[in-house]
Design goal:
By secondary structure, the protein is an alpha/beta fold. The protein has one domain: P-loop containing nucleotide triphosphate hydrolases (Rossmann fold), CATH 3.40.50.300. It is built from 4 helices and 7 strands; from the N terminus they run βαβαββαβββα. The chain has a 7-stranded mixed β-sheet. β4, α3 and β5 form a beta-alpha-beta unit. It is globular, with a radius of gyration of 16 Å. It binds adenosine-5'-triphosphate (ATP) and magnesium ion (MG).
């Protein structure tokens, strides 16, 4: 018998910002240490909305600080010592600037990472990750977004399978 969820990619259209946040929350609830979620797409595509959903589903307490011009948000939660780092690479020139942000420590920590504009730091990204590409869908209300999920490496394949099962139930192949 072949596994039901062997796919490493998955495609979905979100119809609203609420739906994107709910999906993020579903994903956030599944995150464990070492998971890396890359959120790719243009300005206003919905990356930060999904990141907020992920943090909520993960059970983050309020961010320690939330000035606008911050590249890394460190989230904590009451349940355990795990951390969730939300990194926005839009203003990062390239991987060489990551050192000053404590990149190596984030990778070594008991933490999961959510990265906006991951293509800016392509060369530094861990090989294992879940990549989500946001793109626009032609519609009159401008509230639809196509989300393409692509998993690389075993833990992230399993993460995507479980996410898909929980968010959408089992679907016939
Ligand atoms: N289906 C949808 N999913 C997500 N956001 C949506 C959706 N429909 C409308 N929106 C709106 O699009 C905007 C997305 O903003 P957001 O900050 O998440 O974008 P972003 O991808 O993080 O952009 P940036 O690259 O500037 O950081 C919000 O204003 C949100 O309300
Ligand atoms: Mg953003």
């Amino acid at each position: 018998m072949s596994p039901i969820f062997s796919d490493t990619t998955f495609d979905f259209v979100s119809n609203s910002v609420e739906q994107t946040r709910r999906l993020g929350a579903r994903l956030g609830a599944l995150l464990t240490s070492g998971h890396v979620i890359c959120l790719s797409g243009g300005l206003g595509a919905g990356k930060t909305q999904m990141a907020a959903g992920i943090a909520g589903g993960w059970d983050a307490l309020e961010p320690v600080s939330s000035p606008t011009f911050v590249l890394v948000h460190e989230h904590t939660r009451a349940a355990d010592a795990m951390r969730l780092y939300h990194i926005d690479c839009y203003r990062i020139g390239g991987p060489e600037e990551l050192g000053t942000l404590g990149w190596e420590d984030m990778l070594d920590a008991n933490a999961a990472l959510v990265i906006e504009w991951p293509e800016r730091i392509d060369a530094a990204l861990p090989a294992g990750h879940l990549w989500i590409t946001f793109s626009g869908v032609e519609d009159e209300s401008f509230t639809r977004r196509r989300l393409l999920f692509e998993a690389a490496g075993d833990p992230h394949n399993a993460l995507l399978s479980e996410f898909r099962r929980r968010a959408f139930g089992s679907m016939p192949e």
